[in-house]
């Protein structure tokens, strides 16, 4: 006699499509960057760890039907209770939602689950003002590296982060063949998020430091070599984000010890934000700033980087005309106008 207990179909297991979602669909079919795929992988892994470690579930038995609204709400509460910011929690849930949408295209029976999770409202977030480096702080950090071989490298990294306003991933993906310093307008070719390409002009000062760095580090390198790399156990590869962050922290600490005021945490993206804000405050059109940053929409640039300076705010306030005190109200003696202002006919 056959065992009547229903065997779980492999297709109904929640994690049955994650490999294809992360390795085929995201990168090869819809053209998302590897960094985006890794972000989704991290979020789904954290969800898996929560199910296994906190709820005692198993990957081999957890089904799509088990991923209820209550399950995701409890997952959110768990993340918040363990110190995750609301914005980070929203990213985690968005990854689960995207995965469910993909799985529902593979299997129509998952659509009801995907629809239910799509109706979960995001956590409310407080939009905090992001700090930037003051002129004094920026100058101090850029001049902090010593006149040594490592100092030449570190200064080139710091100057390019600010001068080009590139994302750290974009900086570390630059190869020697992407740099054109001998042209009339020296520039760097950047491949950004979503494989979007753009060319960024270099200032004369940045060219000077970059030329010296290449002379010291790349006198015999091939054109395909990464601009910034490290060699570990004889293997040379592009430098890691963590290595750049350690460089920034080191010089920020040195500058802080000398009494220069800095934000609580100086990191890679702060150079991009500082450069974008400075360009905007110097009167550069928001469309041009957006192009430099590689944004598809100027709304993104306005939202995050268009921060007016104190001088701009003061000029705007002073440009507002003072009301003329002896003007008579336009409705005085006009019964029809007063009736209209009261919402009457």
TrEMBL record:
Pfam families: Phage_int_SAM_5, Phage_integrase. Residues 128-318 form the Tyr recombinase domain. GO terms for biological process: DNA integration; DNA recombination. GO terms for molecular function: DNA binding. Coiled coil: none annotated. It comes from the Bacteria. Keywords: DNA recombination, DNA-binding. Residues 5-104 form the Core-binding (CB) domain. Belongs to the 'phage' integrase family. This is Site-specific recombinase, phage integrase family. It comes from Blautia obeum ATCC 29174. The lineage of its organism: Bacteria, Bacillati, Bacillota, Clostridia, Lachnospirales.
